[in-house]
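From the pipeline queue, job 12 of 40. The input is one protein chain; the requested action is below.

Action: predict structure.
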Amino acid sequence: MGFLFDIGTAVFFSFIYGLYLLILPTKFIGTLFDKSITYFILFFTFFITVFSFLAEFPFWDEFNTRFNFIAVDYLIYTYEVVENINQSYPLPVLIFTLLLLTGLFFFYFRKTNKFKTVFSNKMVFKKRLVYMLILSFIGFIYIQFITNKQAETSENLYVNELSKNGVYSFFAAFRSNELDYETFYQKLSNQEAFSIIKKDILQNNQTFTNNEMTSLDRKVTNEGVENNPNVILICIESFSAEFMTAFGNKENLTPNLDKLSNESVFFTNLYATGTRTIRGMEALTLSVPPAPGNSIVRRPDNSNLYSIATVLKQKNYNLNFIYGGDGYFDNMNTFFGGQGFNIVDRNRGNPLADDIKTKRINIEDSEVTFENAWGICDEDIYKKTLKVADANYATKQPFFDFIMTTSNHKPFSFPKGAIDMPQGTRESVIKYTDFAIGKFIAEAKTKPWFKNTVFVIVADHCASSAGKWEINIDKHHIPAMIYNLNTTPEKVNKLVSQIDLMPTVFGYLNWNYNTSLYGKDIRFIQPSQERALLGNYRTLGLLQNSIFTEINDRRKCNQYQWKASNKEMKAIKSQDITLKKLTIANYQTASYRFKKGLMKAK
């Protein structure tokens, strides 16, 4: 199977030079002009071939797949990617190796007289046309009839990915960077799908306020006195539950977070919706099932959506998005600014869109003690957060700060001497991440606003999504806690989705508000209703009652028995139709509502 895709890639790589040979007049064959153009085209062909081959190794190491939509996205944000490569690998050595290998191709061609043959063969135009037509026909067959999905013949993800070609996979992802649910996935009638989802999301303290079929508008009523504390949400980059001692880690990497978990409402069974930062942001802000294809954070027309910002603005909160890099990356500034957040980031000269009316506050060089490709270190971003919180406190208006950290990311670098471990490893940067959070909480305790501030600490996604399944459930398990809530600390062992976290925070604060979010207040979820929504770029799933239902862009639905004790899934032959329909309803209605503009805040 791999050979089939390698042949297709080779055909496409040959096309440019083949086209040149076709249009080159016979009298120019072997001239200086011909040799110059030939060497130029072949140099870049060989260079790109070698580069793409070598680049697949670190990409596989991090994502356990061939090139996919992530690689496509990385082409857009060249600063972060080039700097990350420069800081993670010896760039001069890499460039020298690429040039050396490219030169070896030229040496081989010259040694075997390939160039001599090329520059002496005065092939007539008609014969060249025949060869080019054959090449074009093969290319047409691949474009029209051979899709990247056809390499996926196994239930084992590794087998499927190894059957592909990286370059072919890259361009397949480029062509399908957004997946339309109605085109690629199993469907119910809209009436049935919305009927199922409305029944599922309605909780005991809620009533519908709109009878339209596609409306999810509800009024939420909580008993007790409403509290309006400041809320600081810390979204930790790439932080798996397995890093914490609380989940069995023996390396003592997270003493501060372990201590905080014992003083918080601590969620021990919470699952991220995706495997990328923008998926975590989507889940935490929009409280919606993960959309197929690109996250809503990256999509056009994503401003003024019904989100937690809509609820917070009902309560007159000042909203701030605080990020240690340039928020232009992954469209974060446009998304958060479009929901009404002020932007606090490292402005590298990428202006906000004209329709973003909120403020942008730059993190100045004087406020930075350490910075890598992705942004400033966690200590620096927390220091900036303290300044922003002090300024907001002075206005006597409650504030909500969404902090996105960056330290826990390759090249795994942080200020020297901060902790007693060397830089450059995942374990050391985990310990630094924990150290910085502990330091931040200690400094926050000295502030006059601390007693009236709730801290929500959660990961955006796990450090790795690798595994043999399309969706590996254990690689979505993340920690989450609500600290300083003025309530008795407790461990919540219920199965919880990342989209439920903020609606649950609103519940603990006894808020009465209007909502159209998919997320639930977990305090009202019955054991049989516990569920988690998990997805990647193409595959979407729902875990409920130890059954994982999975739908994909090949219009297939699979179900597995999930055993959390040994992290194993076993295929179920006789499917649970109710769970299948509930899974479809979640993703179909969410995609429909965004596509039709029904997620817009009124």
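Job complete. Residues 32-63 form the longest helix (32 residues).
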